[in-house]
Amino acid sequence: MVVATRVISYREALNEAIRLEMRRDPTVVIMGEDIAGGAGIGHVENVGAWGGVLGVTKSLVSEFGRQRVLDTPISEAGFIGAAVGAAVTGLRPIAELMFVDFFGVCMDQIFNQGAKLRYMFGGKAKVPLVIRTMIGAGFGAAGQHSGCHYAVFTHMPGLKTVAPATPYDAKGLLIAAIRDDDPVIFFEHKLLYDTTGEVPEGEYVIPLGKADVKREGSDVTVVAIARMVHVALEAAARLAGEGIDVEVIDLRTLSPLDEEAILESLAKTRRLVVVDEDNPRCSVAADIAALAVDKGFDYLDAPVKMVTAPHTPVPFSPSMEQFYIPSPQRVIDAIREVV
Amino acid sequence: MDIPKGKLRWIYERMVTIRRFEDRVAQEFAAGKLPGFVHLYAGEEAIAVGVCAHLTDRDYITSTHRGHGHCIAKGVDVRSMMAELFGRSTGACKGKGGSMHIADVDKGMLGANGIVGGGPPLACGAGLMAKVKGTDQVAACFFGDGAAEQGTTHEAMNLAAIWKLPVVFVCENNLYAESTPWTYHCAASDIASRAAAYDMPGVLVDGADVFAVYEAAGEAIARARRGEGPSLLECRGFRYYGHFQGDAVTYRTKEEEEEYRRRDPIERFRQTVLSQGLLTEDELNAIDEAVAREIDDAVRYAESSPMPSPEECLTDVYVDYPAAQLAFRH
């Protein structure tokens, strides 16, 4: 069967995933601040004002109405908790936490309620909830709107965590997340919204917990997350000219972790560099490095290198912000140290 | 008030079950048979029972750390409750929740909650589910006077009001948040009047009078079922035990405790139904005896149930997840 594809943006791919799932399943609802926008204002009541602060949920309200596309007050603990309660009682809510940095005001509802209810109730409940949230530096948004913080959620039992790097993955993973019976935190990198790629028109599912080899290579394995996949690919392209053959693995899902994909690649290349935009301590990068030295020790011919953000908040000024974000050059430097 | 005789018997039976259950838990806890710690509901029976008398299994409640009474009022099986408190595999949560997280979603009981103010947003979610699906289900949200000061409670009341959700907020003002009196922690002269800030009805009720609770809750729940939105009830009550078992309760006087015991909700119910000839002494005594047998049976059931196998620790985290990643790394 030939599947029709066309080039669309990461933003459009996410919108399409939500739209298709809302068409397929009437229990899917979406809520968040300004996700339609202009609630209660006559001339935008049926079409919305914003469609999300960066337009991901644009025009959903026109098709599904205010009953299923719910603008919320700026009240994250209230509405994230309501999404948990709705999930436990029979809906499949998608809640938008505008920037991941805002988890501080609603973490109890995510961590102590959403993530733990099933376990504390002895398996007699399920929480089919998706929390979509924006991550990443590079927008000049400074300390409270630029973090990644997915390590915080990956650490927590009961949550699954997903961070797509391409429009194709964004759509297939979001559909999988919405259909999943566990709570999924879905991290969207704000610098990726305008990136484009080939995306099939209809529904398709990319299973959670499966990494993807974005570039095959034999000399070194680079494991990367979200926007860092593109940074790693750029580094790989530049090194190809020097005869260094880099394999780039896009993790896609952080919890559960595709350990097999990492170890299989490591068995081939015997060298590992992890590229992660999050802060370094207790990070996903550190977790993967630990995996490599524990289960992949015999494969390793060189130390494991981590290319991450520094242990600081995200700075404002572009000069410092660019310094903060892992660059292709830093990835190249790390690779050169191990090959 | 015109309450059918069967409902009166149910109200009495549930209140006595809560009282006997809690008294027995206090005893078993003192004997060192229960792990962890417990917060007991004795004294506040009229609130849970007066509210839940209007709910069916399809309706939902959220609860608090003091949740045994809410479970019993909502119809959770007493054997499975006692087994849960004993940490047994036959417990309502297979021994994974304990007193502070005891739950039975099939009965609409969304869990006791170890987080003060954890429940109100969840109740909004249950209400939202009913609204989106177009059912007439209702969510009752029990919270204490301590939780009345949590941001989540205010956020939830606002959310329920703007979305006109079928949620009834039931503040159990038992006068003390742990050891701190509500007259200290609350800036308002009553909690019910805070309803005005969310444009919903707010009613102050004597929480030791099950008839008063039944009537106020009946109106609030009917309003919610009609799709007219949330209400707030403040039920003033008193917990006979301390905040938790082991609390020396130095913050209350003997006189205060005696005064509240004179207004005991179960005794008052007995006097009312007997003086009005609604139920007979024999009927009430028969219920007492049946409940006593049920509690004895529940303890026997719990004690004779097996402990969970240690490896049970590794199940029920997710619906679907690679098992190896839940286990120890080594």
Polypeptide structure, described:
The complex is a heterodimer of chains A (339) and B (330). Chain A is an alpha/beta fold and 339 residues long. Chain A has twelve helices and 14 strands. Chain A has helices at 10-24, 60-64, 76-88, 107-114, 117-120, 150-154, 167-179, 228-240, 259-269, 284-295, 318-324, 328-338; strands at residues 5-9, 28-32, 69-71, 92-99, 130-135, 160-162, 184-189, 196-200, 212-215, 220-224, 246-250, 253-255, 272-276, 305-308. In chain A, helix 7 (167-179) links the parallel strand 6 and strand 7. In chain A, helix 8 packs across helix 12. Chain B has helices spanning 5-30, 45-52, 68-73, 78-85, 119-133, 151-162, 182-185, 210-225, 254-262, 265-275, 281-304, and strands spanning 60-62, 139-144, 167-173, 176-177, 180-181, 202-206, 231-236. Chain B has 330 residues and is an alpha/beta fold. In chain B, 42% of the residues lie in helices and 9% in strands. Chain B contains eleven helices and seven strands. The longest helix of chain B has 26 residues, at 5-30. At the A-B interface, helix 3, helix 4 and helix 5 of A face helix 5 and helix 6 of B.
The CATH C-level class name of the largest domain in chain A: Alpha Beta
Q: Got a strand count of chain A?
A: 14
Low-confidence stretches of chain A: none
Largest sheet of chain A: 7 strands, mixed
Which range best describes the helical content of chain A: under 10%, 10-25%, 25-40%, 40-55%, 55-70% or over 70%? 25-40%
Oligomeric state of this protein: heterodimer
How do the strands line up in the largest sheet of chain A? Answer: 3-2-4-5-7-6-12
Taking all Cα atoms into account, the compactness measure Rg of chain A is 20 Å
Total of domains of chain B: 1
Q: How many distinct helices of chain A?
A: 12
Structural class of chain A: alpha/beta
CATH H-level homologous superfamily name of chain B = Thiamin diphosphate (ThDP)-binding fold, Pyr/PP domains
CATH hierarchy class name of chain B: Alpha Beta
CATH architecture of the largest domain in chain A: 3-Layer(aba) Sandwich
